[in-house]
Amino acid sequence: MGGVRSGFATTDDGVRLHYLEAGSGPDMLLVPGWSQTAAQWRHQIADFARTHHVVAVDHRGHGDSDRPDHGYRIARLSTDLHQLVHSLDLTDVVWVAHSMGCALAWSYWDLFGGDRLARLVLFDEPAVLIRQPYWPDGLAEEVGALYGLAQIADVVRGLRDPRSDAEALSARFLDDMWTESADEGDRQWVLGRNLLLPREYAGRLLLDNVMHDWRDVLPRITVPTLVLGGAESVIPVAAARSVASAIPGAVVRILPERGSHFAFWENPAAFNGEIRAFLDSR
Question: Which of 53, 209, 225, 243 sees the fewest Cβ atoms within 10 Å?
Answer without folding.
Answer: 53
